Amino acid sequence: MMADKKRILVTRDFPPAGIDRLKENSAFELTQWEMDRPMTREELLERAKDHDVVLCTLTERIDREFLEACSHLEMISQFAVGYDNIDVAAAAELGIPVGFTPDAMSDATADIAFGLMIASARKMFYLHNTIAKGEWGYFRPRGHLGVELSGKTLGIFGMGRIGMKTAQRCRGAYNMEILYCSRNRKPEAEKELDAALVDFDTLLGKSDIVSAHCALTAGTRHIFNRDAFERMKPEAIFINTARGPIHHEPDLIRALEGGEIRGAGLDVTDPEPMRQDNPLLFMENVCVLPHVGSGTNEARNEMSAMAADNIVEFYRNGRIPHIVNPEVLSG
Ligand code: GLV
Asked: In angstroms, rounded to a whole number, what is the distance separating the alpha carbons of residues 220 and 237?
């Protein structure tokens, strides 16, 4: 019956794989946010008030204030692997389970990390722009020299699913030596890739490429700061495809300008969007992308399917296949 339908607020135009399944399910009634831009805080609050579930992503700030104002919510289904936009502890206190979509984008994001390494090592974005400015010029034997990745040492900060896929690419394509720094030991990385667990200082001091794949937490916010960049090799390239605030952006700019590190490849910035006059956009050895790590048809459809599945399963049998705060359902 209509009155019993669960009302789902869909905050963005997510790909159809999961959304269509929710639409076709007579247990649900969907409200789709109709604009291309994210909702403002007020719009989100206003609409969430008469819904049971919010299907959202990182553009929505689901903080304590929001959750307390919307404590009637039965579930939040996040379309992302990262969930630093959500105050998960507050959601748990209020008994609101939070679903997410891990692993759906691991290959897609590892491709971006790998691509950014090559692109920044060979100045690709910068050189592309010189052509657009009419500055191709003539062949210069010592012009635009980059560096090769073969046999270099890769330092993975955060050996989770995406870190592992990135390391596999680097080992397979370039036989790189793999170091990693992670909360937990990863025996599969050690077995398959001969990866060595090291402390943060060793990772910084020994790696030719340092690639961040950790979650954004109080402990990782600005962990790549002036002090960290000073400890890296002058030839090192810093890659961040995780979250912008993991690096301290003014410190990164200073480190690049001062030659403390060679280059950087960023799919995430702080803030997002990056301002168009940010000096990083004009540096030879820097490549920046607008947070598109999961931006493939495959990954985004898989994320949509998982976000929908989390909702369907929750109402069908009280469990959420991919849940951030399982204590809410087991408690
Ligand atoms: C994208 O940034 C994600 O967390 O899925």
From this structure: 19
